[in-house]
Design goal:
This protein is mainly beta. 3% of the residues lie in helices and 46% in strands. It is built from three helices and 35 strands. The strands form seven sheets. A ten-stranded mixed beta sheet has the order 24-27-26-25-28-23-22-31-34-33.
């Protein structure tokens, strides 16, 4: 029975391939096809990042199963190599803030996560052709600054980054603490300014930001007083509180996104703030919630799930997960991914659900919720949490004749469904990236860059022996 989960290895171009301290890293200047085949042997104490121009080569989701005597056994449900599912990850997020148009400068705010247990260092390459300045690195769990230094490729290579470009430069970050075992993470924010006239330039009154982007989730903030003229990628356009416009997008393809964004000066007659509901205008690409469903055999009507969530509100120390109507919850457990520590949890029902979750709708005496407790979020910091549960839902997970049927509305941007062993996919009502896991199970990745819910109906048939 699924009780606890280990690390999700979303490590920006790195994945475990042979033994616990062996990883894959793509060279910056290779094609994507070659990237997925380049191997870099590095120390377990070093963690390498491809930077703002690389895309993850593989997502390895590792589950930690708890035996009755609390003996921990690892099991992988990572997608196979060379599948688009391996390219879709929620961890890396970059926001580019375009500075004064004639300067050719833009600020980069880059959120990344280290997953390798025991890692103490992190390398971020400085892109060739860009001049970096004003670097700062923050530990997102505590909000405190981290030590770092700019090193040459030769020094990076001698420090253990065997595939380092000796003619390049790297930002070497000292993590606040070794990455905790058993599912721990180390989340950092790299803040730096680039000067790159080839990527950001003027053409008359028009400004142009042209840059190949290799990670999935990005946003570009225009200078104050500029409006969007064109963007060659599907994107949200969002007005920020300071009046600047943010162009945000989630690239769901495994290829680099050849962004070309154009903007021009704008003047408005008035300056009234929008009266529209804030939740209708939330940025999708910056969301960090993700969920994985692991379907048990359909006769049981059960599926295990876990969802990851970052709590950023100062002083908050509980999370209430209201169970969807029609489902029953069992076996709840949780983990603080910043520390690796287990969370206390309890199940509440009926009137207690309404008391603890005031925003929950249509609660009844049959309503259930799981309350997870954790150390309060420190000022300026945040806490990354993983919640694990088993749901029983005869209405939405069942057998219909000889077909497995699973129905669910998916509200998060990143959703994964894994079919039980021995079942062959026959229908998926919504587009999904489909892959086969090493153990033969089918994995479906649903990425929804929109703000609405995705209604999903999956059917499957049992494979004959």
């Amino acid at each position: 029975m699924l009780r606890e989960h280990g690390v999700i290895t979303k490590a920006l171009g790195i994945h475990i391939v042979a033994w616990p301290f062996t990883f894959v890293m793509r060279k910056q200047d290779w094609s994507r096809h070659q990237h997925r085949r380049s191997v870099l042997m590095i120390s377990r104490r070093m963690f390498a990042l491809g930077g703002d121009q690389t895309k993850p080569s593989l997502a390895a989701i590792l589950l930690l199963l708890a035996a009755p005597a609390n003996a921990l056994v690892r099991s992988t449900i990572e997608p196979p190599r060379d599948t688009a599912a391996g390219q879709l990850e929620e961890d890396p997020y970059t926001r580019y803030e375009l500075l004064e148009p004639a300067s050719g400068k833009f600020r980069i705010l880059y959120n990344v996560t280290a997953h390798d247990a025991g890692a103490t260092s992190y390398f971020n390459p400085i892109r060739n052709g860009s001049i970096a300045s004003d670097e700062r690195v923050t530990d997102l769990a505590t909000g405190k600054p981290l030590k770092f230094r700019i090193v040459s490729g030769k020094i990076a290579r001698s420090a253990g980054l065997e595939d380092a470009d000796e003619n390049g430069e790297y930002l070497q970050v000292s993590l606040a603490r070794p990455v905790p075992p058993n599912g721990g993470e180390s989340r950092i924010l790299i803040d730096k300014t680039y000067e790159d006239a080839k990527s950001y330039y003027r053409r008359g009154e028009m400004i142009i930001f042209e840059r190949p982007l290799g990670i999935d989730r990005n946003a570009v903030v225009l200078p104050r007083g500029y409006r969007l003229v064109s963007c060659n990628l599907p994107a949200q356009v969002l007005e920020r509180p300071d009046g600047r416009y943010m162009i945000s997008f989630w690239d769901i393809s495994p290829a680099q996104a050849p962004l070309i964004l154009k903007a021009a000066p704008v003047w408005f007659a008035g300056s009234e703030k929008s009266s529209l509901p804030a939740e209708r205008l939330e940025e999708r690409a910056s969301q960090t919630r993700e969920i994985v469903y692991l379907l048990q055999q359909p006769e049981t009507h059960r599926f295990d799930l876990y969802h990851d969530y970052t709590e950023e509100r100062h002083g908050v120390s509980t999370y209430v997960n209201v169970v969807r109507t029609g489902s029953q919850v069992s076996n709840p457990s949780g983990r603080n991914l910043d520390t690796g520590a287990a969370l206390a949890s309890r199940v509440v029902r009926g009137a207690d659900v309404a008391k603890l979750a005031s925003d929950a709708k249509d609660t009844t005496a049959a309503s259930e919720a799981v309350v997870f407790s954790f150390p309060a979020v420190p000022p300026g910091g945040s806490t990354r949490l993983r919640f694990t549960e088993t749901y029983t839902d005869p209405g939405n997970y069942r057998l219909s004749g000889d077909q497995l049927v699973w129905e669910r509305s998916l509200g998060r941007a990143a959703n994964t469904v894994v079919l039980p062993a021995g079942w062959v996919l026959t229908n998926s009502s919504a587009p999904a990236i489909t892959s086969q896991l090493p153990d033969g199970r089918t994995r479906l990745d649903y990425i929804n860059p929109r703000t609405d819910e995705l209604e999903v109906l999956i059917t499957a048939r049992r494979q004959s022996q």
